[in-house]
Amino acid sequence: MALSKSLQSGQVPLACQLCEESNEIKWKCLQCDFLLCTKCQTLHKKVKSTDQHTIIDIKDIACHQQQTKDKLDFSNIPCGIHSDQNCCLFCQSCEVVVCPLCITKIHEKHKMIELAKGYELTLKTVKTFNSDIDKKLVQNGEVLSEIGIFKSSEDSIKYELEKQKILSREKVLMDEVKKHTNKLMKELNQRRRSL
Question: Which residues form the B box-type domain (predicted)?
Fold first, then answer.
């Protein structure tokens, strides 16, 4: 009984967002952001105002989202200097995006390339920089490891020196104790003989 109640209050299948009747969703209009059944997809294509809309199979939504994510829009990059302007080129000499005013005032004789190419170059530079940093981190790790080994070796040497000092001191003290013991024994023996 409890299971049937939970199923009734569970997920409800989506209906076509155009006809709101069919539950067999197969398509998505990217511009309208509608999920459509096959019948409505055909009708949607016939409407004059939507004839340029892109309709994709719902199985391809994830792939399309990844492609859209990969395509970058360079048309609305605001200029950092001229707030009323959008950047239109990449100054390769200064490695910055520039608007028309920047080009005429500051970057007139510099080498300019398209924004997309500038983005690719910058991305490549960043990847190279990251790769160099990774290599340096590995090298630093190796150097730290060598320093650790050296420190450990140095600590071992210090340990052995201290150990030798202690053992030498022990020998000196034992020799002193032996001398003192011998002296006492000699005195004791002399006293005994004199009795």
Answer: 11-58, 74-115
Residues 6+ apart with CB under 8 A from 69: none
Q: Which two tokens stand for residue 164?
A: 């030798």
3-state secondary structure of 29: strand
**Phi/psi at 19 (nearest 5 deg)?**
-90, -20
Token pair recorded at residue 102: 């920047």
Q: Write down the pTM of the prediction.
A: 0.41
Residues 45 and 55: their CA atoms lie apart, in Å, by 8
d(CA 20, CA 180): 112
27 closest CA partner among 6, 58, 49, 52:
58
Mean pLDDT along residues 39-57 = 87
Radius of gyration in angstroms for the set of CA atoms belonging to the chain, rounded to a whole number: 43
Q: Is 64 a residue whose pLDDT tops 80?
A: no
What integer pLDDT is reported at residue 190 of this predicted model? 84
Nearest to 28 by CA among 60, 52, 50, 51: 60
Q: Judge residue 98's burial from the number of C-beta atoms within 10 Å of its C-beta, 0-12 exposed, 13-18 middle, 19 or more buried.
A: buried
CA distance 41 to 1: 40
